[in-house]
């Protein structure tokens, strides 16, 4: 509801000059990145549930290994209740969650529980090697040579145990895991019936084809990125739900490839995946692929994936779900601690540290990093045989930890709730009056709009005559000149006289009904000219050379033959955090302004006003983007 005409934007006090604030607008659009973690996928699933319960709205998903499994189920819109029911059902059977692994390689001998013992030995070998030097906080012990010898002997035994697994390149085939993922994907309520009944595995192509057939985009899926290590090319491969190169890949097989812990699971041969190859766990190279949602990804979307406008145009929060280590850091001043530190960094610690820092590289980052002590599950991430009894606890602990973490940060959102915009709008109108100082003074109205779901809602407005409640809630982000400027991501000017006279065509052209039309144009004096300018997200704005703005909306909705609106070229690109609009009640003859909108920017007064709006839009963007916690997931000494 509109506040009184003397109310300023929150935090700035009363203003008798006509500025007004609107009800707070909240936006928690995000991209969601989930790290790997073996059986601790249950904790990561709980974290994801907590994030969703706190109102965060993922526009894209990415995951590695166990994180790829969780991300895929969320992307597939599988109801959480179905996931929980399936996990409970499997946990209650003989063998529990180990049944997802499939029958072990008979060449490795009686692998269960031997397989778990071997891989526990592999995982602990670094600690055992470091212990040969006296422990992390101790001086070297006597008989060092003897301890090293026993360590080498254990290593030879380990080699013999692992060699048996290599016959099939791994111990477990994980076929039931593939069936588990596919079975859950087919339980999504909005999946077409023919895909629910499909005998084979669902492919990315099935989803792409279904989206193209669905005119209302009822089953539209946001992008999904799954990472897997391609041993054939020695590179990390990003399997994308949008890329036609992967349309023949079964979604569940992509998850299986990403989760294929070397030697524990058999690798996955995917000849239909891009250029083909043999795939193992994506965590071998990158266990937390937050870099996927870099600026380069937005550029790729702009050039290749126009259908995903939400991810192109909207700013996002980068939400990361991780599992932290509860181990005490070794004292590198002692021989044992020194070796332990080296081993820890060599087996993934250095990669994890690099990924943590990349995740905070100049972006809105909300990291949920749950300590191992807060998981409530088995000690080993491959202990599937011990996970069944802990499955519910791990999910609930992950959910509660994520929700507490978000609450501690006061539920960060895109728009600074303490932003002060009224002064910026007032200064803009004063600047316009100065530009037109040798001409009759017009009535002026300025407003800032921001995205909230599918709406564009006013955050603040200022009217030179104190006329209240002029800014509309636009029910669609493409409504009005403001909506067009948002999607085109470029300044636009409009001949409002033309629009007012063509009232029958208003809804077709601008998405406004008759009541909205009356509210905007029924005031006295009626506005005759309007401009809307995008406020580019300061976190991701960039400059490009020699490119015209993408005017997809205008191509789909051509203007009136006389040209009621026009797009002004800009060198700026990036997501739009808000749109700044200004309308004037001015006689065109007073400004020597021609009727055709495409000729407006040739007028020096219009040029100066639009330039002033661009400056004000930058101020609005900085003000709105401020206030996001800049230390989420950051430890002391890293600032």
Description:
This protein is of the alpha/beta class. It folds into two domains: 29-104 and 172-409, Cytosolic phospholipase A2 catalytic domain; 421-626, Beta-Lactamase (2-Layer Sandwich), CATH 3.30.450. Helix content is 38%, strand content 16%. The protein has 21 helices and 19 strands. Strands 2, 3, 5, 6, 8, 9, 10 and 11 form an eight-stranded mixed sheet that branches. Strands 1-13-12-19-15-14-17 form a seven-stranded antiparallel sheet, with helices on both faces. The chain has a two-stranded parallel sheet with strand order 4-7. Helix 1 (41-53) crosses helix 14 and helix 6 (175-185) crosses helix 9 (251-258). The radius of gyration is 29 Å and the shape is elongated. The two termini are 41 Å apart.
């Amino acid at each position: 509801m509109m506040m009184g005409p003397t109310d300023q934007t929150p935090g700035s006090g009363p203003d008798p000059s006509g500025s007004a604030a609107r009800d707070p607008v909240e936006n928690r659009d995000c991209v969601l990145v989930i790290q790997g973690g073996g059986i601790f996928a249950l904790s990561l699933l709980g974290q994801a549930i907590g994030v969703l319960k706190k109102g965060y709205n993922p526009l894209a998903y990415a995951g590695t290994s166990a994180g790829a499994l969780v991300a895929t189920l969320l992307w597939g819109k599988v109801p959480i209740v179905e996931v929980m029911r399936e996990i409970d059902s499997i946990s209650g059977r003989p063998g529990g969650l180990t049944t997802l692994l499939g029958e072990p390689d008979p060449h490795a001998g009686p692998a269960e529980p031997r397989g778990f013992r071997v891989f526990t030995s592999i995982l602990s070998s670094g600690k055992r090697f470091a212990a040969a030097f006296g422990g992390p906080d101790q001086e070297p012990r006597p008989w060092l040579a003897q301890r090293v010898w026993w360590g080498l002997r254990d290593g030879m035994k380990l080699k013999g145990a692992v060699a048996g697994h290599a016959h099939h390149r791994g111990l477990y085939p994980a076929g039931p895991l593939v069936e588990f993922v596919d079975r859950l994907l087919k339980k999504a309520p909005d999946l077409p019936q023919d895909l629910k009944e499909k005998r084979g595995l669902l492919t990315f192509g099935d989803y792409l084809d279904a989206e193209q057939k669905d005119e209302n985009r009822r089953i539209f899926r946001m992008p999904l990125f799954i990472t897997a290590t391609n041993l054939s090319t020695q590179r990390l491969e990003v399997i994308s739900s949008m890329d036609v190169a992967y349309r023949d890949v079964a979604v569940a097989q992509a998850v299986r490839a990403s989760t294929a812990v070397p030697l524990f699971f058999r690798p996955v041969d995917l000849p239909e995946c891009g250029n083909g190859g043999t795939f193992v766990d994506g965590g071998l190279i990158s266990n937390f692929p937050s870099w996927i949602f870099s600026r380069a990804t937005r550029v790729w979307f702009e050039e290749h994936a126009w259908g995903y406008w939400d991810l192109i145009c909207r700013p996002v929060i980068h939400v990361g779900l991780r599992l932290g280590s509860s181990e005490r850091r070794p004292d590198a001043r002692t021989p044992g601690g020194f070796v332990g530190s080296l081993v820890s960094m060599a087996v993934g610690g250095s990669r994890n540290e690099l990924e943590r820092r990349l995740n905070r590289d100049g972006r809105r980052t909300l990291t949920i990093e749950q300590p191992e002590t807060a998981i409530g599950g088995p000690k080993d991430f491959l202990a599937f045989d011990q996970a069944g009894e802990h499955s519910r606890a791990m999910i609930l602990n992950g959910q509660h930890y994520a929700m507490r973490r978000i609450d501690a940060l006061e539920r960060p959102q895109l728009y600074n709730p303490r932003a002060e915009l009224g002064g910026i709008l007032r200064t803009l109108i004063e600047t316009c009056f100065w530009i037109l100082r040798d001409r009759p003074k017009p009535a002026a109205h300025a407003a800032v709009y921001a995205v909230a779901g599918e709406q564009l809602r006013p955050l603040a407005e200022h009217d030179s005559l104190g006329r209240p409640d002029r800014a509309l809630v636009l029910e669609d982000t493409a409504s009005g000149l403001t909506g067009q400027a948002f999607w085109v991501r470029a300044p636009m000017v409009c001949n409002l006289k033309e629009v007012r006279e063509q009232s029958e065509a208003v809804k077709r052209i601008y998405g406004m009904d008759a009541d909205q039309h009356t509210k905007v144009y029924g005031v006295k004096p009626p506005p005759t000219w309007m401009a809307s300018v995008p406020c580019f997200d300061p976190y991701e704005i960039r400059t490009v050379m020699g490119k015209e703005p993408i005017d997809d909306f205008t191509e789909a909705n051509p203007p009136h033959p006389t040209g009621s609106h026009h797009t002004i070229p800009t060198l700026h690109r990036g997501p739009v955090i808000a749109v700044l609009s200004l309308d004037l009640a001015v006689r065109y003859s007073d400004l020597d302004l021609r009727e055709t909108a495409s000729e407006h920017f040739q007028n020096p007064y219009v040029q100066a006003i639009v330039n002033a709006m661009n400056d004000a839009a930058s101020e609005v963007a900085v003000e709105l983007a401020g206030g996001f916690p800049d230390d989420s997931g950051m430890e002391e000494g890293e600032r």
